[in-house]
Amino acid sequence: MATKTAHAMPPLMSYSDRFQNAAAVESYEGREYGPGSYAATVWQGQLPVLERTLKAYRAAHGGPVRLLDFACGTGRVLAGLAPWVDAADGVDISEAMVAVARGKCPGARLAVGDILTRPDLLQKEYEVISCFRFLLNAEPALRGRVLRRLREVLRSPDGMLLVNVHGNARSLRHPALVWRRRRERSRPTGEMLNEMTAGEARKLLADNGFEVVNQQGYGMLPPSLHRTWLRPLVVAADRSLAGTHWWNRWSIDMLFICRPN
Ligand SMILES: C[S@@+](CC[C@H](N)C(=O)[O-])C[C@H]1O[C@@H](n2cnc3c(N)ncnc32)[C@H](O)[C@@H]1O
Predict the structure, then answer these.
(1) Cα(115) to centroid(ligand 1), Å
(2) How many other CB atoms are there within 10 angstroms of residue 224's CB atom?
């Protein structure tokens, strides 16, 4: 079932085409995840938590842990998680993105293609699947179809899905997005300005086979403050507020740890 996103802009191109060219890859690596960027700061907070989560899962699980990083892109998440699992696969629809991942993830099995039409791209079963920065900007129908396919290859009942939504509609980033959406309407640039609430994300997951067992949040303060002289204070405040607390339902980047339902 397609899930409606309350806060979305009509895209200029399909999400699957968006990262196919060299300029998009360069912008993702050099600007979005460039040194000191907002996204890189969020990731620095998430990585140690993911490491601990995987170590605990592996200790409890006993057997080998096979990881699939769906929409692996340039390998940021895959390179961070691969040391804590026994086998790591990454799959993405963009050859240009995966070309960068090959350099960062030498031990991983990387594949390029559409998991919805190519069953051969995936193994039969994974203990852990990660899916970062995909759900928010993928078209509503694609989100559900991908989640259902991932559900088919996630070990049941004890597999784990690690998935994030990097634009919470109920966060302090929202006012800036309203303004940028207005500007985008008069001067379209193709910027992605989607948002989703925690409730919408949970419903999307539940409708497509996943139960959220833990919700975490990263980044409470407006990202624009990271570009001011206040940055050191803002980074420290965001770091101390991150994690699993009642206020994290208003965090900008929501991380969900899920089990098959
Ligand atoms: C914003 S990037 C995120 C990359 C990586 N997960 C990360 O967090 O750094 C989104 C990725 O989704 C991939 N993508 C888009 N549509 C896809 C599809 N239908 N199947 C697989 N990957 C897709 C893009 O090629 C791109 O690499």
Answers:
(1) 12
(2) 13
